[in-house]
Amino acid sequence: MQVTAYHTSVFKEKEDLPLFIYRHIAQLEEGDILVVSSKLVCLWKGLSVPYLSKRQKQRLIQSQSEQALKTKLAWLTIKASMVMTNAGIDESNADGKLLLLPPDLYACAAELRRALCKKYGIKKLGVIITDSMILPLRAGVIGAAAAYAGFCGVRDERGKKDIFGKKLETTLVNLADALAAAAALNMGERNEQKPLCRISGAPVRFVSKTNPAEIMYPPEQDLYAPLFKAAGLTKKRKKHD
User: Fold this and answer.
1) In the CATH hierarchy, which fold is given to the domain comprising 2-231?
2) Alpha carbon distance 163, 22 (integer Å)
3) Residues 8, 26: Cα–Cα separation, whole Å
4) DSSP state of 166
5) Distances from the Cα of 21 to the Cαs of 8, 48, 68, 112, 113, in angstroms?
6) Fewest CB within 10 angstroms: 45, 128, 147, 223, which?
7) For the purposes of burial, counting CB atoms within 10 Å of the CB of 66, is it exposed (0-12), middle (13-18) or buried (19 or more)?
8) Which helix (H) or strand (E) covers residue 204, if one does?
9) pLDDT tens-digit profile of 47-59?
């Protein structure tokens, strides 16, 4: 598998993202996966607001999340069936603005994939919109797939045998997040200015239509469910205006 990040010019708000990608990546081939920073998608969709105050940001975090819990370092939130900090609202590399995630990132990934398939004249193409996340009890951030399109993001290994012939009972392989993490390692988190990454030779099955439900695990069955419950993240709350 080959992972290549691309240095680009600074993407402007509401700029044509498919055209921007086409200008910076000369060729995408059948079976490639293109990884795109969520910041580009936020700007593409014009989802920025001027940063005014900490209180303003706090209200946005609460209104943009399904559940939210204040912690020492940030807000721990659930948004779009993912646990993320601050509902994905970002102010790094945003030039004094707050960047908000689109309400349907999977629709954005599918739209971007359709446009790129047309521009590059290919059919088997995957797209991942990546964002940073923090794993429980781990220092530092890693890349995660906020959304994806064009391939199966989870591989089911249940019923298959390990090297000693024992049948696997619970193993699901999260391909989407693993690929996002590999790409993010090459893209960087600071001023590298590499918001695009091409992955070739990924061990995935390409499909014309992605089912987001495959990667969305039921909260009541999740390994961290007891922690969610203790933290109050499983309780439904009223939406803020």
Assistant:
1) 60s Ribosomal Protein L30; Chain: A; (3.30.1330)
2) 44
3) 12
4) P
5) 9, 21, 34, 10, 11
6) 223
7) middle
8) none
9) 999 999 989 999 9
